[in-house]
Structures are given as C-alpha cells and as structure tokens.
C-alpha cells in the first residue's frame, strides 16, 4: 500500500494571515503564521489523524486542503495536480474530490432549506454530475447511506438531533463521491453515545466507499480509534508523525507524551490521580513564536540547544515512518515505564 | 485566614447558625426527591413537561460527587434548581434542597442571597459568557467580597488579587486589571473558579467546567480544583458528560437519564461493576486502547421526549434487556452497599 503514490501530497505548506494594528493607518502589525511549513501525505482509503491543542493550526490546514483558503506558499498536490494553483472551472472540478465536514452541525446547515435541498445542492452546482431527474433518487440513496430515513427528506434541520444533523452534513459531503473527506472535529459537539454512532458511520463508509479521511480532533482517543497514521501539530508545525501504534505506544516528542498523559483514562485509579505528567501554561502566541523549538517554553526537557536551533522533523533508521522534531526525543526505556 | 477558622461547623457563631434548620452534622448539600417542570403554556410555569423527576443525592465535605448523563438528562437543571437560578418557565414542583440542614427552597430571596455565593457557589461551563466583558476581572472578583462582607473597595481588590494568585494566574496583581477577553480559555476558567471559591463556600457546583478546553488545559483545571478542594474541604458537585474526567475526579457518581437517577455508586464500583444498562452503554461507547478497527458499541435511538415519556422504565425503549416487567418503572434500590440502581435487570448487567 505504501508503494502507491499518495492521492494528496502536501509540501512545506505555509499560511500567513496579516494582522492589522489599530489606528488610522492600519499598518500591518505582523503576521499570524497559522500553518508554518507542513508536509503530509494521504493514500487512498487511509485515515490520517491530525491532533493538537486549539490554535495549533489544524482547522487552518483543513481550509487549505479543501481549497477554501489559498496558501501563502507551498504545494498541495491532489492526484498529482497542483490544487493551490488551480483557478475557475478547473478548481471547481478539483474540489469535487476533496470535501470538508465541519464541527458544528447546528451552524453548517441552512435552517431554511429542507434536508433534500441541502443534500441536493452539490448536484445543482456541479450540473454535469447527474441529470435533474435523478436528483431525488440520488438524495434518497445518500440519506440511506448515512443511516437516515429517506422519507424525512422534506424536513428541516431543526427537526433533527445533533447526531442526525451531522449525518445530513456527511450525506452532503458525499454527494459528489469525493475520494477524500477532511473532517474538522466532526464529533466534538456530540454526546458520547451519539459520537460512537458517527465514528462507526465513518468507519463503515470507508469500508464501503474506499474513501480517505483527514480526521481532525482534539480528542486523542477518538483519533486512536479511527486513524491509521497520526500527525501531531504544535503552533503551525507538525512535531511528530507516524502510525497510530508508533505515536501512541512510543511517543518521541515530549509534546505528544504530555498530550497523551493528559487524556483522562476512563478507569478510576486514585493512585494515578497524582502521577500525571502535567503540561503547564498555554500555547504561546503564533504572532510571536519562541525561537528555536516552539515547544521549548513548556517543555520539561528544554536546553540551550532548543532555543538556538529549531529541530527538524527526523525519523530514526529503526522507525523510518516515525518522525519527530525534537533535539532530545523521549527514549523507549522512559516510554516503557510510562506504560507500566 | 479568619474566614475559614470561624467556619468550623460546630461553632455556634457560625454564619449559617442564624438560618432555621442549620445542623452542622447534616450533609453539606442534600437534594431529596427534587422535581422540576417546564410550562406547557406561557404564564403557567411548572405545568408541563417534567424534566427533573424525583432526584436525590447528598454530598460529603471534601469529597467530589459527579453527576453524569447526556445532554437533556436534567443534570444541569437539577444544579440550577439547587442554586435557585432556573430558566424562565421552569419551576421546582416538589422535593427539597438542604444545605447543612437549611431548606434553601423555603428561604426568601434576601436570605437566599446571603447564602448563595458565600456558602454555595457555581462554576459555569462558558466562562466568557459568565463574566462581564466590560469590567476588569479583578473588579468582578472584588464584587463578591463587597457583596458579602464589609470590606472597603481597596481591601476587596487586594483580596481579589490574592484569589487570582491562589488559582495560579501568573502576575496576579497586573492581570487583575485585565478584561475577560484578554485571557485564554483556561485562564478565564481559573478566574471563574477564583470567584466561586472567594468566600470559601461549603459547596461548589461545577457545571462542565472543562468541556470547552483542550486536554492539557483540562488536566490543569481539574488538578487546580482538586488542590483547592483539599485545602478547604469543599464539597464539590461535578457535572460532566465525560466519563474520563469523572473517573479521575469523582468519589461518588450519580448517573442521570431522562430526569431521573439511573444509578448511584462509589466511582470504583460504578466503573467496575455497573448495575444499569445505561451506565454500561455510556462506558462501552468510549473509544479505548485496543478498540481499534472494531466498531464501538452503540446505544441506538435517542432519549425520550420529556413531553411524552414512555410507560414504565424511561430507558426501556433503548434497552436490550427490557422485558415485560419493565413496563412498571423500576425504583432506585440498593444492589450493594452504597450502590443503587433503577433497573429490574441489574443482575444481568452486573453479571456480564
């Protein structure tokens, strides 16, 4: 599988958002580096999990990947074609292959449109996909695919629960049979039992349609459950990348280690309550990131070296697919005791 | 600090002693058979859907009681009824709420205002909307001291800075002059906690205090709450839908479903030997290590509409174990020491 060329290939992607100062002249006060040199690959039918704290650039990256926003620099190749350079009708055509599912199904559906109109809209925009006479049947099939009753197509979003609305949003995203879905926190707004239903839906759709996901979530357990590979982001950069097993069982970046240890285990254990590796403070401002390694201000292992030089994303020979950007990565011995 | 020493419940000069029913030996908070209903018509509060239907729980000093359940199960409305801040149209239609024996529902507004904030307080989920955006946070915390004590403005502001320091906000004196929007989500939640704990209340209700926060910040806030609780023996009611957070913080857990208590047990028992199919389903729906590649166990359907509750057990329509006898609502009954379940088939759940 790894020999096949990636269907989505991202190289050194950068997005800078100018921030204007106050006052009459509105001079540019600086630029917010929301995505700052990200490289990723996605293969057919696989799931890449993207994790990190709020403000790390996960959602900005999602908007770049789906061509909602344009990058400042870098390349996005979708099936070999430079998505970041396309314009007009060719961009519209390319967008069929990669779709975005949003976090909040209450805000992402127009309350004045029926479910049928919402799910049919992609066919109205991309007229060459299906003749008008087929639209109703196609909408019915899509609703069935995501586990909704096609008889409810005439209803409005407010008549559905949060989980059902997320199914409607997924049906709309699937209308043009995209090869890739970029899901931005698709289950964060849902209750745990509903969340499980939607996670299962994503898995079964992947089996049925061979679709690939970029699955963004701050919930590390959900990502562990659904993803094949994981990229951990911090302040606009990928700091660790590898298969789920590599990253979750043997984290190499101290940030990944801290994130994993912050996840509350759903098993009460009074002894463990005290023994957490806490991460102090908040993410620094992306307007003025720390010199060298961006994580050093919160890192228990930080040394002078970390302020002077930014560590490159580097994979050891023993684990060629498991890269981390750290001068002093966690060692397997230390990780072993954390497991015990 | 004198505020804490004069609060030893045995003290006759205790500030609560002037309220009728005060009993230092009674639980810090005791909710008994509480009922809340919404209006079915405007202008007639409490006449319609029953959203909290006979909920009882009690807390202990220095311990955490968690109330869990999905959206709409009535966990927040119970807390709001306890605080006397129900939304318009909702009304308590039965039961009692007692703070060290004092019946809060029987107090007039002025008496309640003297207890609320000082002896029982609340941390809300959304700190940004709970704080006033046009006042510096130090001023807002100082207001708590001025409303309940006879401190001068200057003394109150000094106390506010001390509180910000206690919730570990760096450079507290400078930060006291900042407005809510100048704080990150985690720091704002610390400000909320500073306000709630300012007067060393006996009971603090935290309604989803970490839901909007990142895991790392979430861990910091939960740790802070635990430390402050240990310092002052606060009785904490933690309302959450996150079974992971609850597992790490609670001594005792109340599981609510459709306005009722489905199960109640010490945390270890509830997670280790659940005795209600709903609790079991909540635990099974969590993705865990080793669940990769397998579908998660899913609870089908949705909770009942409070306007049209099912006959008998409210969980019956979604329950795999439901049988003939579930047409009569199962009462909450003891299934083990300190462990109660409202299920006819609890043995089948526990025995799995």
UniProtKB/TrEMBL annotation, chain A:
Keyword Hydrolase: yes
Entry annotated with the keyword NAD: no
InterPro entries for this protein: AAA+_ATPase, ABC_transp_ATP-bind, ABC_transporter-like_ATP-bd, ABC_transporter-like_CS, Oligopep_ABC_C, P-loop_NTPase
Enzymatic class: hydrolase
Source organism superkingdom: Bacteria
One Pfam match: ABC_tran
Enzyme Commission number(s) of this protein: 3.6.3.-
ABC transporter domain location: 8-260
Classification via Gene3D superfamilies: P-loop containing nucleotide triphosphate hydrolases (3.40.50.300)
Keywords: ATP-binding, Hydrolase, Nucleotide-binding, Transport
Gene Ontology process terms (BP): peptide transport; transmembrane transport
Molecular-function GO terms, alphabetical: ATP binding; ATP hydrolysis activity
Recorded family membership: Belongs to the ABC transporter superfamily.
Name of the protein in its database record: Oligopeptide ABC transporter (ATP-binding protein)
Native organism: Actinacidiphila cocklensis
Lineage: Bacteria, Bacillati, Actinomycetota, Actinomycetes, Kitasatosporales
Gene that this sequence comes from: appF
From TrEMBL, chain B:
Keyword hit for Transport: yes
One GO term of the biological process aspect: peptide transport
Record's bilayer topology term: Peripheral membrane protein
Domain ABC transporter: 29-283
GO terms under cellular component: plasma membrane
Keywords: ATP-binding, Cell membrane, Membrane, Nucleotide-binding, Transport
A single GO molecular function term of this UniProt record: ATP binding
N-terminal signal peptide: none
Region annotated Disordered, chain positions: 1-21
Claim: Cell membrane is one of the keywords in the record: yes
Compartments reported by the entry: Cell membrane
Family label: Belongs to the ABC transporter superfamily.
UniProt name for this protein: Dipeptide ABC transporter (ATP-binding subunit)
Species: Actinacidiphila cocklensis
Gene from which this protein is expressed: dppD
């Amino acid at each position: 599988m790894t020999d096949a060329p990636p269907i989505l290939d991202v190289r050194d992607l950068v997005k800078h958002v100018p921030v204007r100062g106050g006052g009459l002249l509105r001079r540019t006060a600086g630029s917010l580096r929301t995505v700052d040199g990200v490289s990723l690959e996605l293969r057919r039918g696989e799931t890449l999990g993207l994790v990190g704290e709020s403000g790390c650039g996960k959602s900005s990256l999602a908007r770049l990947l789906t061509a909602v926003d344009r990058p400042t620099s870098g390349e996005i190749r979708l099936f070999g074609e430079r998505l970041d350079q396309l314009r007009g009708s060719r961009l519209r055509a390319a967008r069929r292959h990669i779709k975005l599912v949003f976090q909040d199904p209450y805000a992402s559906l127009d309350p004045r449109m029926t479910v049928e109109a919402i799910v049919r809209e992609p066919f109205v925009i991309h007229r060459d996909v299906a003749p008008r006479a087929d639209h109703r049947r196609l909408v019915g099939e899509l609703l069935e695919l995501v586990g909704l009753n096609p008889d409810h197509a005439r209803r409005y979003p407010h008549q559905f629960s949060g989980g059902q609305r997320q199914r409607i949003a997924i049906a709309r995203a699937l209308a043009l049979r995209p090869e890739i879905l970029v899901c931005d926190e698709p289950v964060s707004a849902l209750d745990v039992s509903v969340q499980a239903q939607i996670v299962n839906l994503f898995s079964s759709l992947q089996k049925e349609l061979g679709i690939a996901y970029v699955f963004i979530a701050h919930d590390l357990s959900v990502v562990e459950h659904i993803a094949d590979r994981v990229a951990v982001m911090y302040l606009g950069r990928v700091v660790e990348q590898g298969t789920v097993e590599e990253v979750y069982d043997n984290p190499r970046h101290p940030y990944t280690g801290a994130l994993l240890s912050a996840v509350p285990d759903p098993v009460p254990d009074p002894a463990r309550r005290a023994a957490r590796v806490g991460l102090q403070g908040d993410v620094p401002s992306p307007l003025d990131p720390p010199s060298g390694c961006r994580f050093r201000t919160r890192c228990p292992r930080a040394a002078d070296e970390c302020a002077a030089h930014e560590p490159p994303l580097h994979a050891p020979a023993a684990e060629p697919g498991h890269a981390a950007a750290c001068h002093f990565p966690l060692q397997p011995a230390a990780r072993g005791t954390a497991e015990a | 600090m004198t505020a804490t020493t004069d609060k030893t419940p045995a003290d006759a000069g205790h500030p609560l002693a002037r309220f009728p029913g005060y009993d230092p030996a009674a639980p810090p908070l005791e909710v008994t058979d509480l009922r809340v209903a919404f209006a079915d018509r405007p202008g007639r509060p409490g006449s319609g859907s029953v959203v909290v239907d006979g909920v009882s729980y009690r807390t202990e000093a220095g311990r955490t009681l968690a109330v869990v359940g999905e959206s709409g199960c009535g966990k927040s409305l119970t807390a709001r009824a306890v605080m006397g801040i129900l939304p318009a149209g909702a009304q308590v239609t039965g039961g009692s709420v007692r703070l060290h024996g004092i019946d809060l529902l029987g107090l007039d507004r002025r008496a309640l205002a003297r207890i609320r904030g000082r002896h029982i307080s609340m941390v809300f989920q959304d700190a940004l909307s709970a704080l006033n955006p046009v006042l510096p946070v130090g001023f807002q915390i100082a207001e708590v001291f001025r409303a309940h004590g006879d401190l001068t403005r200057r003394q109150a502001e000094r106390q506010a800075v001390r509180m910000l320091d206690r919730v570990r906000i760096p450079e507290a004196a400078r930060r006291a002059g900042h407005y809510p929007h100048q704080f990150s989500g985690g720091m704002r939640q610390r400000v909320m906690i500073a306000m709630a704990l300012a007067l060393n209340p006996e009971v603090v209700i935290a309604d989803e205090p970490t839901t909007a926060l990142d895991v790392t910040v979430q861990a910091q806030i939960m740790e802070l709450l635990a430390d402050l609780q240990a310092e002052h023996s606060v009785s904490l009611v933690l309302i959450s839908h996150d079974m992971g957070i609850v597992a790490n913080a609670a001594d005792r857990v109340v599981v609510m479903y459709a306005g009722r208590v489905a199960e109640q047990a010490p945390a270890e028992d509830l997670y280790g030997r659940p005795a209600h199919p709903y609790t079991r389903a909540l635990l099974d729906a969590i993705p865990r290590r080793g669940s990769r590649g397998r579908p998660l166990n899913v609870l089908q359907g949705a909770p009942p509409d409070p306007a049209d509750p099912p006959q008998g057990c409210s969980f019956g329509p979604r329950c795999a174990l439901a049988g003939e006898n579930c047409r009569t609502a199962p009462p909450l009954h003891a299934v083990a020491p300190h462990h109660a379940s409202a299920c006819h088939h609890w043995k089948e759940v526990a025995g799995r």
